[in-house]
Amino acid sequence: MAAKPQKIFKVVVIGAAGVGKTSIIRRFCENSFLEGYKTTIGSDFYVKKLDLDEALVNLSVWDLAGEDRFKFVLPTFCKGAQGGLIVFDLSRRRSYINVTSYIELLWQIVGTIPAILIGNKSDLVDQRAVTTAEAQEYAAQCGMPYYETSAKDNVNIYKIFEELSRLMINYTRSH
User: Fold this and answer.
1) In this structure, what DSSP letter does residue 36 have?
2) N or C, which terminus of the chain has less Cβ within 10 Å?
3) Which of 75, 76, 103, 74 is nearest to 87 (CA)?
4) pTM for the full predicted model
5) Which of the 8 DSSP states describes residue 102?
6) What is the side-by-side strand order in the sheet with 115-120?
7) Contact between residue 146 and residue 119 where contact means Cβ atoms under 8 Å apart
8) Distance (Å, rounded) from C-alpha 156 to C-alpha 20?
């Protein structure tokens, strides 16, 4: 039996401040969740291995600050990314409206790489400000999958990183 191929990918997680990027990453990488994270300053990164049927995948996951005052560093940290998660908060409509600028920025820097649109905080059912249908429609227009997650309740967290890894594997095969 042949050994599985090994892949190494840089993934950036971007979106407005407070949408839960750090919570998603920490849930995935450390299986932990804390209420009230401190604002990410500049960037932080984590490493996680996935054993998929297709390959052994090493992910370098970059958590990029969402505050406007740190937007100037995004181009530097996005360089070399092979995949992206664009995150918004389902309970904050403004964060959903802002995803367009993050997608455009990412693709302007690295080209049209595999990406997934993420509606986070699905556990805040009573505070929902963005419908599943509108987010799915927008993601389809951008040519990307859409998932709703809850870092707090650990909903779809592992799945989004598996899906993005498969998209990156397929993308590298065809390019």
Assistant:
1) S
2) N
3) 103
4) 0.91
5) H
6) 43-51, 56-64, 6-15, 83-89, 115-120, 146-148
7) yes
8) 14
